[in-house]
Amino acid sequence: MRDAALLRRIFVAGSKGQLGAAFVSRLSREGELTAVDLDELDLTEPARVRDAVRSSGPSLILNCAAFNDVDGAEARPLEAYRVNAEAAWTLAGLARDLGAVLVHYSSEFVFDGRLDRPYAEDDEPAPQSVYGATKLAGERFAAAAPKHYVLRLSSLYGGHTGRTTVDWFVRQASAGGPVRAFADRTVSPSYVPDVVRATLDLVGRGAPFGLYHCGSSDWCAWADIAGHILAACGRPELLEAVPFAHAPGRAARPQHCAMSSAKLGSVARAPRDWRAALDDYLAGRARA
Ligand SMILES: NC(=O)c1ccc[n+]([C@@H]2O[C@H](COP(=O)([O-])OP(=O)(O)OC[C@H]3O[C@@H](n4cnc5c(N)ncnc54)[C@H](OP(=O)(O)O)[C@@H]3O)[C@@H](O)[C@H]2O)c1
Question: Per-residue pLDDT for 67 more than 70?
Answer without folding.
Answer: yes
